Here is the input.
Amino acid sequence: MATTATSPLFSLSSLSASLPSPSRLPVSLSLRALSPRARLSASLQFASPLGAFGAWSETSTSAGRWRRRGLEVVCEAAKTGRQPDSVKKRERQNERHRIRNHARKAEMRTRMKKVFRALEKLRKKPDAQPEEIIEIEKMISEAYKAIDKTVKVGAMHRNTGNHRKSRLARRKKAIEILRGWYVPNTEPAAAA
Here is the structure.
């Protein structure tokens, strides 16, 4: 450790008194004088008690700066090569959520395909009856439920969910119009 000082503004003892406790010191500590008249160069190595089972190891807690009497103390964080526990936990959560969201979306798509197949079958059937649409409406209700659940948990945007529900309703309405079971109102609404 090399120390040269031409100004009595500070000393290493006053500097060490201004620093936090040894349990919070980083691995490397460099000192720079902010005043042009004072010159100090020092490099100190510390260890902090962050290792496994409370043992002392060379890891740092954080990076920060302290100023005292024209002296700037710069703490540099050392790279440890391992990820924090919070990163690992977030990765586990992301994987769990990805699998659940995929299952919800798959269920929603399956229910929509069943409705589309049933509507197509009804469209191609030559002697279809209006009562047959009731079974398809139950399937549409289940598809709506699956879509709403997917949107509720955040696996899909609500506008996308509304768009998919609209697709189901439009397809059903087109079949009803084609069969003559529904006649759209072509007259404009009377203004009050």
